[in-house]
Amino acid sequence: xxxxxxxxxxxxxxxxxxxxxxxxxxxxxxxxxxxxxxxxxxxxxxxxxxxxxxxxxxxxxxxxxxxxxxxxxxxxxxxxxxxxxxxxxxxxxxxxxxxxxxxxxxxxxxxxxxxxxxxxxxxxxxxxxxxxxxxxxxxxxxxxxxxxxxxxxxxxxxxxxxxxxxxxxxxxxxxxxxxxxxxxxxxxxxxxxxxxxxxxxxxxxxxxxxxxxxxxxxxxxxxxxxxxxxxxxxxxxxxxxxxxxxxxxxxxxxxxxxxxxxxxxxxxxxxxxxxxxxxxxxxxxxxxxxxxxxxxxxxxxxxxxxxxxxxxxxxxxxxxxxxxxxxxxxxxxxxxxxxxxxxxxxxxxxxxxxxxxxxxxxxxxxxxxxxxxxxxxxxxxxxxxxxxxxxxxxxxxxxxxxxxxxxxxxxxxxxxxxxx
Length: 420
What we know:
Blueprint lengths: L6 H14 L11 H17 L5 H14 L10 H15 L10 H16 L5 H13 L7 H25 L5 E5 L2 E5 L5 H21 L5 H21 L2 H17 L4 H20 L4 H8 L4 H19 L2 H6 L3 H4 L13 H27 L4 H14 L11 H15 L6
Antiparallel strand pairs: 1-2
Helix pairs in contact: 2-3, 3-7, 4-6, 5-6, 5-16, 6-18, 7-8, 7-9, 7-18, 8-9, 8-10, 8-17, 10-17, 16-18, 17-18
Subcellular location: Membrane
Organism: Bacteroides ovatus
GO molecular function: ligase activity
């Protein structure tokens, strides 16, 4: 990190990070004045120094706060973040070879805004999409430092949340259905969403180790440590969807990715040793029981999907099928109470219709079409993301971690180095 910041700046933001994770009250937020003061402490020094990494640092603090066991001092509301990014743009006016957002992303943001306004619903989803578009104005697609820093922040987020899980997870035990009955697992939130955030760091760690093998030894060992901590957290939360997403994306990458055979063998050996160690320590026991179980939330998801799709195609008129029924109203389709779809594709289809679903598909196809140098990395990241979205809805639910990881994918797809 010294490569990007002065030592005093690193110490300052480490202290802010420690303050962020110090709030442990899960029943209430800190007073608003303290939250605004904390937000100012994060962004004002960046404004003063016209720091080019302002959105990356902002996203890191927001994601850690929003994914932790207690939403802490850092505000995570879409309107707050949009306002901060707008002021950042006004104060900094960065002149960079900025990241290009797909037109489909803008179309989906506008569609969500108009559909939700028309149905008199909350427009928080569109606010967040516009915030992501605004953040892209600060991110340079031709600066290797930016690519490295975004990669490091995603890894750091995974490390911090993984360490929080290890130290605090025992205080938040929940039951889970398996073929052996109800068993307990650690965790303070939906393990699938939490595991997905950790998984972003796993993917970024693999990419960094493959792309920059000559990094400093301390940093390299730190990334290896992050991998171990992150994989442990994913296994203990017993998130089947995230486990499948990581295994699938990494498996296809090592089979078909454009990486030298020697590197593939090295990483397969390291991965095999980690798997063997975890197996001997019994870390796979709970997740294996989850895969063998015929009960639990997997069957419940299928019931929700069938009921929601049936209601969408049978009860909605042609305009609603084209443009959706809105974010809030879609949660009642096919169910007597407010209930999520547990599938981003179904959530987008019912909320914003076939137009929204086509826009979503285009959003993910865009970086694949644009990718040149890092096409293999883009494919592994996209595959992980779209696989996770089959069992959860981080995109539609407005998870900052999902949007930040997508910006990372765009950066990988558009980056062009001078020596390649």
